[in-house]
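Action item from last week, closing it out:
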Amino acid sequence: QGELVESGGGSVQEGGSLKLSCVASEYVFEKCFMSWYRQVPGQDREWIASLNLIGGNPQYEKSVKGRFTIFRDNDNTKRTMYLQMDRLKTEDTARYYCEGCLRWGQGTLVTVFS
């Protein structure tokens, strides 16, 4: 088990929703800003959203703002961060990664079809 483990990816029709989860190690959850990134094969990894050390002050990349929501579980014992993705578009298709203190999960694949 890595320090960051993502889940929740899948295939969804355009306009639909998915909720990604990232379970973090105790160190990452307590000591790190945490972020979601995504990557399309052949392209650079792209930052899309972040939370600060206490899970507040959400920040979003322009193309996902208003459609995606980053948040942490209210129960800190779960050490889980989420990405709620609504009104998905085909261009959101990518592998999504969780990051904290430059540590990465293995990613979870999201495919949006028209």
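Closing note: The two ends are 35 Å apart (CA to CA).
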